[in-house]
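Possible regression after last week's pipeline update?

I re-ran a chain I had predicted before the update to compare outputs. Posting the input and the new output here so someone can diff against the archived version. Not blocking, just want to make sure nothing changed silently.
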Amino acid sequence: MVYRSYLVFILLCLFVSCKGKKERVIIKENYIQIVLPESVKKFLKEKNLEQEIFVRKLALDYETIYKKLKKFRKEFYEREKDEWARFFYDYTYTHPMIILYHKKKNYFKDEEILNWLKNMTERAEKMKPEVPVTKLLLYMYYMGILLKNEKYNEMIDIGHRLLEEYEDKLNKATLFYLGSIINYTVQAFEKSGRHKEGFDFLLKAYEKFKDTEIEKNLFFQLVKTAKDSNEYEILKNKFKY
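New output (post-update):
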């Protein structure tokens, strides 16, 4: 225990000193407003929803946002046949759905919200051109609810696939969502008793995304995840203190 505490302290000091005065970027937004297709914006404006959604969000009244957007969904689908526009209409009320799922017990059944997010992520995979920030935000929501429902194998499959798919040239918000997905994946490994695989996965993620805005978070997670002397030896050698 003393060895572990000492090594953690040394590694943290080394990491901070090596980075010098590099600016730390903090993502303050918990929801990024995506630029919607013109057809969606026009429809929301016609129904006087554009301003109301803004006001309701300020008041944290997500239930009203969800109900009103859902109410007009059928009408929008009858008017708009473009799958991209339909996807983004549904995307506008996915965030309120997630808030309500977590804040109001029994507002949605687990399978209902899981099926919705599975459908949304599958649709996001097919859309061209891809919008990574939208896709990864949906996957971040999905991973959180999969974790709550103990669907660890599915989480691990998603985490592996997304880590392979994305490079380090992503914008800050997209990196933030990907970092959360990596964190969820490590939790899934731990919960399913596959610690060594989780540590290796995290090490791979750190190597791939070092020198990005999520590097420090991945480093601290590595130190936190390491459990035995072999893993601490790996960290000690990697950071060469």
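Follow-up from reviewer: compared with the archived run. The mean pLDDT is 84. Marking as no regression found.
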